[in-house]
Design a protein that fits this description.
5 strands; about 20% helix; globular; alpha+beta; 5-stranded antiparallel sheet
Amino acid sequence: MNAEDMLTLKVRLLIQGVTLPEGEWAGRRGGAGPVGSRYFVLPNGRACGVPVRTGKMIRRYGPVSLVPTGKKGIWLYDGKIRLREVPKPGFYSLTTAEGT
């Protein structure tokens, strides 16, 4: 994939976002920092925060899906481009003494 193709891919991911299979974690729901996205490593080794579209947003931006390949953390975009998932940080599942 040449530099122009890589730039086009990144722009498409950032603007259109993706849909995920039912039941997949769509990203953080709130708080400081980016929400509603997942992070993937592009074929050039650079990371990209990709918005996960749900509900009305799918109709607005289009239903481009990420499909799991069967290999842990590897997804196919547009049926052919392999993206490697950046693992969800372990601290996302932690809670405080108050339960939040």
